Structures are given as C-alpha cells and as structure tokens.
Amino acid sequence: MKKKGRYGTYGGQYVSETLMGALLKLESAYAKVSTTRAFSRELSSLLSEYAGRETPLTFCANASRELGCRMYLKREDLVHGGSHKLNNTLGQALLAKHMGKKRLIAETGAGQHGVATAIVGAVLGLPVEVYMGEVDTQRQALNVFRMELMGAKVIPVKSGTRTLKDAINEALRDWVANVEHTYYLIGSVVGPHPYPLMVRDFQSVIGRETKKQVMKKEGRLPDCIVACVGGGSNAIGIFSPFLKDDVELIGVEAGGEGIETGEHSATLCAGEAGVLHGALSYLLQDADGQVLPTHSVSAGLDYPGVGPEHAMLKDSRRVTYTAVNDSDVLEAFSFLSRTEGIIPALESAHAVAYLMKNADRFERDDIVVINLSGRGDKDVAEVAKMRGRIL
Ligand SMILES: Cc1ncc(COP(=O)(O)O)c(C=O)c1O
C-alpha cells in the first residue's frame, strides 16, 4: 500500500462527512494502540488462552491419496466460535475498549462474524447489536440463536435482497447516528480505510502460523495455497505472509449456479471497479452502475463487493481468482466429511472444491494448503434440507 488507505487505485474513504471524523480517529487510535506492548500482550493472550490458537495444520492422508497431492488444512474451524472471524473481532473489540467505546455494532452474512462479535461482547463486557439480512437469519437460524444466547441483539434487515449488502447499509446508518459512543466492528477486509488494513493485520496470524508449521513439517514452503473469498479476510489472512514468496495463491469465489447464469457472487471474476460501502474495489453491477443481486449456497460469500487489496492483487496477477459452482461445493462438503471426518463450512468447501476440480494440475509431492475458514455445523440443517431431509 503506497498511498495511505490505497491498494493501487483501490480502497480509499468514500463516506459522508459525518463518518470522516470517526474514520480519522479510528485510524490514529489503531496506529497508536495496536503497536503498544500492552495491546499486543493482551491480544496474544486472548488468542491463545481464549480463542485456542495456534490452530493445527492438518495433513489429510485420505484426501491426499484420492486427489494425488499432499493436502493440508489450516484449521480455522477449530478457533472458538467455529471460524477465523474471532481473530479479527478480538483485535477490534480490544481497540474499541481502548478507545472508550460503549457499544459494538456489526453486520453478518453467514452469522459467523455476528457470533464472533457476540462472543467478544460477552467476554469483554460490551453490549452488541448485529444487523443481519432477513434471508440470512432464516438460512443461518442456528447462528442467530447462538448470538442471542450470548446476549447480542440480532436485527433482521428487510430491505433490498435481505442479505449481507443490506445488513452493511443498516449498520452504517446506525454508526452515522451513534458515532460518538458506538464502535462499528466490520467483519472482513472491506469498507473504508482503515478497516481493510486492520482486518488484514488481525487475520495475518493465519498465514504466519501456516508458514512456520509447513516449514516444520515439510522443510519447505507450500506449492499452492487456496482460500475462499467473500469479502476476502480469511484469504488475505493466509496469503499476506506469502505474497513475496514463490507460492501460488488461489482465491475461490462463489460461482453459484454458474457465472454465465448471472446467479453468483463472483465479484473479482465477473465484476468491474466501483464504489460500495466506502471503498473503491471490484463490484457486481449493471450497465448503469446499480449493484446486482447475488446468489450463493453459502451465506458468507453472498456479497457483491470484495476487499480492495484483492482487487489490486487480481490486477497485478499475484493472486489467481476463480470460482466454483454450488453443486461442486456440495460435493466437496460431503467429500471432506467422508474422507477426513471434518465437516467444512460451505464457504470453506469452495476452496476444497477448487482442489477437487483441479487435482490433475498437481503432482503427488506438491504441497497444497487449504484454508479451512470454518466448520460446517451451521450449514448441516440447510444441506440436509437440500437433500430432502428435515432435521
Ligand atoms: C466460515 C467462513 N468462511 C469465509 C467467510 C467469508 O468471509 P471472508 O472472505 O471475509 O473470509 C465467512 C463469512 O461469513 C465464513 O463464515
């Protein structure tokens, strides 16, 4: 990032005047607080004692045999709460406390970020309100109940397509009205600067651990790392420490029913530059610049935008972005469950599906690391329903 808050031409702060002051305060608080010993010590202690880091890097012997390469999973499914999202919410909630904020608000798609925010609200003693598209509250009912159990208030958003994009709009509206005492805890590397930077920093722990672990197990860096991309936080978290290395990096978007059908959420594969939620990045839009409706079997990838750093990495070709369809994802969901006894989140199953579809690209000794961003418990009832079983 050369210019402040920019990734090439992408990123920036496209917000109303009301929020500019809040963003500047946030930027300077982050710069000041996050580099202090006290903050680092407090965060690493929460990450290890509470969140359960470091997470294992698991060699998958059975899947490797079937796919014909050395497949590892970075086990973010084992982070407390069931996904990588807690790495970020712990960091931002600690910052909010240091800034003297009295209330956290958040948006959520799959519910995992909402759950992770509810968790930090409970453990750090801050009230939490979570905006969630009404459609997502239905397909992720288990996570709604988990948030409520932990004392958070879930607000179903009934506008637009009633998914993540609309939830973010509502959260931004709330933030404008309550900016003095409220901290808006964004769940991915999206939104105006400094959010993409902060979230990337808090999620980079995934890649740092992976690098150390793979060197220890294999004595060399992996040939390829694969991660799913919604907003892009788990992907940038694992990619970041490898950007200067000779390692192939692949981001997998939600191809939904197929990119050619228009029923998908593959922003980098099929979008164009535009402004959404305070930043310039790739965006799914029509010829008039209106945001297009999206579709994905996984609520966490169902978003028409993407983090600005990914936009830059796509243009520079350092990272390859591709998409897999819902049907491939459901196959991967079953494959990993059957071969390894690990039920992946539908989001993470996109990365597994990429490897299944492209297994012939790899040699038997090639090391491929998949970022398993979350566990699939939240998706089990929905997948059963698709197979005609009501649980
Ligand atoms: C398990 C899991 N993986 C991935 C994502 C996508 O988000 P991101 O691209 O920011 O990692 C989500 C979002 O809710 C998620 O719950």
Question: What is the averaged pLDDT score?
Answer: 97
Which percent band covers the strand fraction?
15-25%
Class derived from helix and strand content:
alpha/beta
Shape: globular
* Amino-to-carboxy terminus distance: 48 Å
Number of strands: 14
| Bound molecule kinds, no repeats | pyridoxal-5'-phosphate
> What topology, given as strand order, has the largest sheet?
3-4-14-9-10-13
Helical fraction: 40-55%
H/E series: EEHHEHEHEHEHHEHEHHEHEHEEHEHHEH
The largest sheet, given as strand count, sense and whether it forms a barrel, is: 6 strands, mixed
Radius of gyration over alpha carbons?
Answer: 19 Å
Indicate the low-confidence ranges by residue numbers. Answer: none
Question: How many distinct helices?
Answer: 16
What descriptors fit this protein?
alpha/beta, 6-stranded mixed sheet, 16 helices, 44% helix, binds pyridoxal-5'-phosphate, 391 residues
Provide a quick synopsis of the model.
With 391 residues, this protein is an alpha/beta fold. It is built from 16 helices and 14 strands.
What is the element layout, followed by pairings?
Layout: E1 6-7, E2 10-11, H1 17-33, H2 37-50, E3 57-59, H3 61-67, E4 70-75, H4 85-98, E5 103-108, H5 112-124, E6 128-133, H6 134-139, H7 141-149, E7 153-157, H8 164-177, E8 182-184, H9 195-203, H10 205-218, E9 224-228, H11 233-239, E10 248-256, H12 267-270, E11 272-276, E12 279-283, H13 308-315, E13 319-325, H14 326-340, H15 346-357, E14 367-372, H16 377-386
Parallel strand pairs: 4-14, 5-6, 5-8, 6-7, 9-10, 9-14, 10-13
Antiparallel strand pairs: 1-2, 3-4, 11-12
Helix pairs in contact: 2-4, 4-5, 4-9, 5-7, 9-11, 10-11, 14-15
Bound molecules: pyridoxal-5'-phosphate.
Pyridoxal-5'-phosphate binds at residues 83, 109-110, 112-113, 188, 228-235, 300-301, 345, 347-348, 373-374.
